[in-house]
Amino acid sequence: MPLYTKLPETIGEVDVIIAGGGTAGCVVASRLADADPEMSILVIEGGSNNQMPTVEYPACFLSHLAPDSKTNNFYMTKKAPDAGTGCSSRPQRSDWDAWNTPGWSADEMIPYLKKHETYYGNDDKGLHGHDGPIGVSDGTYISHRIVDEFAAAAEAMGWPKVDDPGLGSVNAIWRLKKFIGPEGKRQDAATCYLHPRLRDGKHPNLHVLVESQILDRAGVPLVADLPGVGTGYEDNQMLGYPYLNNLSLTDTLDGLVFGRMGSHKELMKSNHKMMGWNGQEMQSKLRPTDAEVAALGPEFQKAWDRDFPTDPRLATGDPCLAVTAFTVYPYSRGQVHITGPNLDDPVDFETGFFADPDQLDIKKHIWLYKKQREAIRRMPAYRGEMARFHPPFAADSGTALVELAADAAPIPRDAPETQYTPEDDAVLEKWLRENVGTTWHSLGTCKMRPRDQEGVVDPELGVYGVQGLKIADMSIAPRNVSANTCDTALAIGEKAADLFIKELGMSSA
């Protein structure tokens, strides 16, 4: 298999070099290899070969996010002045259209969204693919109790359950289809695109070099002055909120994570059905009411009226019960730049979390906290908040954290919403600033925009002022997307491969 940790001396020259074996890079390499098996392609990846059991089984995903993980790189960000230290989800139709770039509208991108996908579910809207490399399914396990209880609680708050959000639903909830095959294996681009072609004997000129960075120095001469490189960094700022509950061991991943159900090795050997589950069941996209927008203040109202008023987005230890809440259209911006010529020189990295001038992102998170808490309180499984993961509201406040007895009656679904005082909001805001984190949805540092608007690439993904250099990953996104970014990255990879194949005079497979 042509996968190396050191490039063989026999490979002295190649036709195409792909720097980075990320989602879009793997798609591009694979599609180019299909289009012309005689073309020599080299993928250079800093990480290791991802063919390992803990990557293959979705239940192990948390181990790769831990600070001591050997499968991820972690970059230290500067302390932000406005923040303390600290799935198969698709964008809206309007997200693509808002990119305002020829060839990249929603209607033009739907074929690429479908091309990478084999969707195991109802497709009444005809928006899904059925013969692509990436399997999208329920996996091998579902916590029906969480699904049923959350759906009922959400309906009581006016958020109906829909089968498939397609490219439009907001103020609704749905069962989260995942990048997990029906047999329970993780569906990533390297596994589903690249490795099959490295094994099949039909792509002898496709080479992958892992654990390697071939640029000995970053002090390369300036070829094109592009101020937009590295600026405009965006990420969907996230916080997670665990709750006390009376769920069983098989309703969460805790039994697997903490070894209560046996070792991972034993569970993998028996192909335990819960190993094909990532513990994430329900998803929603919520929009505040007019009254809630007004309550967030005049600066927020002004931004809302400008950006969203008539937008098409209006279309419709113990078992851990938790909500992860993130804002999908952040106003905050950061940056990422090199600081010197050596590979081990630190990166000048600022997330920019909560740094937007009018402080709109923090206001959104204040609203998000209150909304998700109201929904969870209406689930029969709810038994209070895990205090160390929630704001320390005063004990005599109506918002005080609670711990209910195991046999306590559930909170009625028609109970009035909790009322927060200005003092409560101050506690909440301080806690949010001290605990905000990443959603791993980084994008926008090489935007596909006109050059005079700090753009870095054109609609064909060519870097302005440089011949033969293309960029195809989430850095090209000119605006954020209301979704987890993997699906968008796959579509970008498919679109990019199509563009490159045509430019090279080849025919797509």
Rough shape?
globular
Beta fraction of the residues?
5-15%
Query: Which second-level CATH architecture applies?
Result: 2-Layer Sandwich
The number of domains is 1
Low-confidence stretches: 215-220, 311-316
From the N-terminal CA to the C-terminal CA, the straight-line distance is 22 Å
Integer average pLDDT: 88
Strand order of the largest sheet: 1-7-3-2
Look at the structure and name the CATH superfamily.
Glucose Oxidase, domain 3
- Helix fraction by DSSP (H/I, runs of at least 4): 25-40%
CATH class: Alpha Beta
Q: Tell me the total number of β-strands.
A: 14
Give the number of helices: 13
| Helix-strand string | EEHEHHHEEHEHEEEHHEHHEEEHEHH
Report on this structure.
With 509 residues, this protein is of the alpha/beta class. It has one domain: Glucose Oxidase, domain 3, CATH 3.30.560. The chain is 26% helix and 11% strand. It is built from 13 helices and 14 strands. It has helices at 23-35, 53-56, 93-98, 106-115, 144-156, 189-199, 254-257, 264-269, 290-295, 298-307, 360-377, 422-435, 486-503; strands at 3-4, 16-19, 41-44, 117-119, 134-136, 172-175, 206-209, 231-233, 238-245, 282-285, 321-326, 334-337, 348-350, 382-385. It has a 4-stranded parallel beta sheet, covered by helices on one side. Strands 8-12-13 form a 3-stranded antiparallel beta sheet, with no helix packed on it. A 3-stranded antiparallel beta sheet has the order 11-9-14, covered by helices on one side. Helix 1 packs parallel to helix 6, helix 1 packs parallel to helix 13 (486-503) and helix 4 (106-115) packs across helix 13 (486-503). The longest helix has 18 residues, at 360-377. It is globular and about 70 Å long. Residues 330-493 form the Glucose-methanol-choline oxidoreductase C-terminal domain. Pfam families: GMC_oxred_C (PF05199), GMC_oxred_N (PF00732), Lycopene_cycl (PF05834). Belongs to the GMC oxidoreductase family.
